[in-house]
Amino acid sequence: MLLGIIPFALIVLxxxxxxxxxxxxxxxxxxxxxxxQMGETINTYALNASKRTGEYLFWDDTxxxxxxxxxxxxxxxxxxxxxxxLTGAIPTLHAPLAPLLxxxxxxxxxxxxxxxxxxxxxxxxxxVALIVIGVAPIIARDIQxxxxxxPREQLIKAQTLGASSWQVLVRVYTPxxxxxxxxxxxxxxxxxxxxxxxxxAIASTDGLGYxxxxxxxxxxxxxxxxxxxxxTLLAFLLDWLLANISKKCFAWHYxxxx
Amino acid sequence: xxxxxxxxxxxxAKNLWKKYGSNVVLERLNIRVTAGEFITMVGTSGCGKxxxxxxxxxxxxxxxxxxxxxGKPIPSEPDQSRGIVFQQYSVFPHLxxxxxxxxxxxxxxxxxxxxxFGKHKAKYLADASALLESVGLxxxxxxxxxxxxxxxxxxxxxxxxxxxxxxxxxxxEPFGAxxxxxxxxxxxxxxxxxxxxxxxxxxxxxDLSEGFYLGTRLWVFDKLRRxxxxxxxxxxSITYDLPVTRKTDQTPADLxxxxxxx
Lengths: 258, 262
Fold this sequence. Notes:
The complex is a heterodimer of chains A (258) and B (262). By secondary structure, chain A is mainly alpha-helical. Chain A has helices at residues 2-25, 35-47, 57-89, 91-106, 113-120, 124-149, 152-160, 165-202, 208-215, 221-249. In chain A, helix 3 (57-89) runs antiparallel to helix 4 (91-106) and helix 5 crosses helix 6 (124-149). Chain A is elongated. The two termini of chain A are 31 Å apart. Chain B has 262 residues and is of the alpha/beta class. Chain B folds into two domains: 7-81 and 166-262, Rossmann fold, CATH 3.40.50; 93-165, no CATH class. Chain B has helices at 49-57, 97-109, 118-134, 150-163, 180-196, 208-214, 252-261; strands spanning 9-20, 23-34, 38-43, 64-69, 72-73, 82-85, 168-172, 200-204, 217-223, 236-243. In chain B, the strands form two sheets. A six-stranded mixed β-sheet of chain B has the order 6-7-8-3-9-10, sandwiched between helices. Chain B has a four-stranded antiparallel β-sheet with strand order 2-1-4-5, with helices on one face. The interface between A and B is medium-sized, with 27 and 38 residues.
């Protein structure tokens, strides 16, 4: 734990030294703002209502972005799970759908962002859709692979216990794939953030990604750097939360294969 | 038929063939098995004994000939009439020992969710616990499979296989991965359950002494005809069908000694 903190402390120290050196030379330097400057900026963004609109920009941005991200990831997880389990567990669906799924997951989502804007318009829907389209195929392929890894013996066993195909899906596949789903969502959260910020940067009127790209025009590193740190912290918290939910609900999954 | 009076024929194979493409695995298999027999099947690997077990289970279909259960073609999908214990991977890792067994009742009584709650479930818990007690897992009801040793996992797999009260129990090298000491315990257990539940058992094993010790009838699978230029041209059949009279004081170790002496 302590050992892990050392590199972080070093980075902060290097930044401090570099920032001090630049500010000593030019007090109006914008490239490496001091922590004091960043604190003041965030103070106005987070704790003071905007004079023009009466909004708290920082929290509104956070709310908009998280709403899009969670909605997008949630729908992607749901779709990905269903598609993955169906193609992974049912051979008659695997044959026609697996090649399509493979090809769809290879389409670069950013390349079809214009299509989404054209089809869904420039508001919320297209941003959520980008996350879903970008992430769902990844999750689906991962779940499909995990479903195929469930030993055949277990499925035969379930049949000899009198299970129907539906019951095998519900009681053998689904519970064993849920921790895999959480894992898959954790791994694809990085892509989720990427698509979110990209979509916000291109067409949006609020959100963390929008703000960063907006203030870039004024070279406001005192906004960009704290926002990046905040996004990182949010990503870290989401990941930590998912990991803990998984460990709590699926303790058996972490004890080695049975 | 002389034995027709003693017990009804349960399983009958009539001129049974199994081919995969041009590869003949089993050929001209004719057998009759009456209820209550304990059949052990030995043979070199690839000789078709596992294939025959899979056909009994319904995982594989005969290419030609008939395989009958109580005079009717055997169901072409695995179902609750035939229990199975594999060498491994046949318990559900996400369920406790008790749930692993109760799930069979849940499949039976809850077609939609496959899950029972509250007092509906409680009805079957006592039943399942008693069965688990009888296989020696009474103290491990709340444990997950990963917390069990290899032998205990197989005990659980056996309990699962018996909960739906099948007539036929199929064992596919069930003790192959266990230590010799634990194996001896499992032999006693399986003989006890065979008597108590009046099962007809088919067991694949690669251990000849185990086959002689457990079975009332031992089948040796081998090829009757061989073509050295086309090893796949002819399939295996049962070359020896030996009735085994069980000597109760004989242990697998004795048999091993006898085998070596021969």
